[in-house]
Design goal:
This is Aminoglycoside phosphotransferase domain-containing protein. By secondary structure, the protein is of the alpha+beta class. It has nine helices and ten strands. It folds into two domains: 7-88, 2-Layer Sandwich (Phosphorylase Kinase, domain 1); 92-297, Aminoglycoside 3'-phosphotransferase, Chain: A, domain 2 (Alpha-Beta Complex). The strands form three sheets. Strands 1-2-4-3 form a four-stranded antiparallel beta sheet, sandwiched between helices. A three-stranded antiparallel beta sheet has the order 5-8-9. Strands 6-7-10 form a three-stranded antiparallel beta sheet. Strand 3 (72-78) and strand 4 (81-87) form a beta hairpin.
């Protein structure tokens, strides 16, 4: 914890003083997710300012919806990072303790999360992206062109239909739009989505209450992205086959199940990294250089 830091004076420190107090102690070693404990009741996290602003806005919306999230006490910028100081959840994350939980607790937590997700899905938007920036921040969207700010349904659907049904072309042939869609991606609007509900971001306190943490990737996304993100983690060696089964059931109760789209998105992500220019004829106006990422070179709506 930070030596010299007094949490009762949190709102009295100016930004530079607070930054120095947090950096001064060599014991502040980054823990999972870049989180540091600075006092018995507070933690701090530093990240890209745009990601943090999206996370702050999402956290506050979740709080308004009655979802258990750490309350943000203060945010400030120091150098190239934006720091958030928030309350510490006194509990364990599910990644570490899942193998110790029984079926009764599993069902209790599943229905808590189901209630949270239902509340989140009442919030909709005609455009996708972070609540502050409008950026489509997702580990699954990484080809050269990505998606524009405040992307509409057409852009998002075409992106996932292209990569989710991608078939590697023969050597020396250009990638092209799939003629037949084995997996159909569609969405009428976007819903408020955490997008990273893996067990590392779910915490259980001593009263068996569930908390949702790390909202950096949250925003307006297609409804199926919640299930996809929930399966994106390395299963610990401590989990036995029964623990994996409980997680499958827990996920199904909480957010539903969409294995076809999950597998298609995962496969599409692989191909998008290996054929990063694959969509250039789909995205760029005629005559544009394939390496041109200027928004003005994109076709309208894409």
């Amino acid at each position: 914890m930070a030596s010299g830091f007094d949490e009762t004076l949190l709102h009295e420190y100016d930004d530079s003083t607070l930054a120095q107090l947090l950096k001064r102690d060599s014991r502040l070693i980054a823990m999972r997710g870049g989180v540091n404990y600075i006092s018995p009741n507070l933690i701090t996290k530093a990240a890209n300012p745009n990601l943090q602003r999206d996370a702050i806005k999402s956290t506050n919306l979740a709080l308004q919806l009655g979802i258990r999230v750490p309350v943000i006490k203060r945010s400030f910028q120091a150098g190239h990072s934006l720091y958030t100081v928030m309350e510490r959840v006194d509990g364990m994350n599910l990644l570490d303790c899942w193998h110790q939980l029984g079926w009764l607790t599993t069902f209790k937590l599943a229905f808590q999360l189901r209630g949270f997700v239902r509340k989140m899905r009442t919030q909709t938007s005609p455009t996708a992206g972070g609540l502050h920036t409008g950026d489509f921040n997702s580990i699954w969207v990484e080809d050269l062109y990505g998606l524009p700010k405040h992307a509409g349904t057409r852009a998002v659907v075409e992106y996932f239909n292209f990569w989710g049904n991608f078939i590697c072309p023969p050597l020396h042939e250009r990638p092209k739009r799939p003629e037949k869609l084995k997996v159909q991606f569609s969405t009428a609007h976007f819903v408020f989505t955490h997008q990273d509900l893996a067990p590392r971001n779910l915490m259980i306190d001593k009263h068996d209450k569930l908390w949702l943490i790390d909202w950096n990737l949250s925003g307006w996304f297609p409804i199926y992205m919640e299930y996809v993100g929930m399966q994106n983690f390395v299963i610990p060696s401590t989990w036995k086959w029964l623990d994996r089964l409980r997680w499958t059931i827990f996920s199904w109760i909480s957010v539903g199940r969409d294995e076809a789209r999950r597998k298609a998105i995962k496969s599409g992500h692989y191909w998008s990294l290996h054929s990063r220019l694959g969509r250039y004829e789909e995205v760029l106006v005629e005559g544009a250089d394939p390496w041109d990422t200027n928004p003005n070179s994109r076709k309208p709506g894409l």
